[in-house]
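User: Could you go from structure to sequence for me? I need the amino acid at each position, not a summary. Structure tokens:
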């Protein structure tokens, strides 16, 4: 009886806790976004018209993001790298902006197009396997001087995939996986808690 109650309790926790935390984070985001712009506009509306529009700041924040996205995609597309370099050179911002931008690109970019394939590579030493991403073909000079066909492999750090190692690996030493880049990224972002392709096909308790 006790074991069954324990099973039900754990099963409930696995549903209620993530849901509660997700709702809490959404509420924090809502209040934050609404407070930035909505606070000032609603104060003005309240003084003039004597009513309040909940969520106005969030709506304005979404509109601003869409406008910025449109401008970047159509008008400033060729200048975005210059803007990134400028922001990445500013004091304080240079420690935060590049890391946040790269992390968000890894999360939101369509199938993480910068990476071609998921592989296993023996790193940092023989006998220890790491998950890596093929980012492109190696430059000719490295292949010429090593006498091997090499691949550029990016090995990200757990919980912080925007930082990691670029290693040049002979093609015949790589094990190619059928796992998608998106699924492999989940493994890295959760420090191995969520495994690629894992399905709850049987009762885990």
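Assistant: Here is the amino acid at each position, in order:
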């Amino acid at each position: 009886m006790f074991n069954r109650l324990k099973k039900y309790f754990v099963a409930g926790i696995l549903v209620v806790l993530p849901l509660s935390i997700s709702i809490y984070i959404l509420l924090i985001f809502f209040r934050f976004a609404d407070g930035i712009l909505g606070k000032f506009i609603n104060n003005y509306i309240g003084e003039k018209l004597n009513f309040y529009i909940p969520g106005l700041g969030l709506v304005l924040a979404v509109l601003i993001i869409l406008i910025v996205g449109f401008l970047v995609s159509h008008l400033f597309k060729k200048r975005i790298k210059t803007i990134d370099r400028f922001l990445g050179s500013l004091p304080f911002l240079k420690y935060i902006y590049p890391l946040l931008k790269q992390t968000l690109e890894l999360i939101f970019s369509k199938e993480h197009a910068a990476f071609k394939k998921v592989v296993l590579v023996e790193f940092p030493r023989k006998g220890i396997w790491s998950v890596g991403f093929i980012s492109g073909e190696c430059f000719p000079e490295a292949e010429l001087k090593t006498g091997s066909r090499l691949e550029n492999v990016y090995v990200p750090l757990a919980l912080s995939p925007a930082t990691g190692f670029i290693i040049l690996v002979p093609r015949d030493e790589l094990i190619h996986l059928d796992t998608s880049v998106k699924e492999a990224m989940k493994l890295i972002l959760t420090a191995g808690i969520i495994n690629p392709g894992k399905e709850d096909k049987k009762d885990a308790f």
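One structural detail worth keeping in mind: Residues 2-49 form the longest helix (48 residues).
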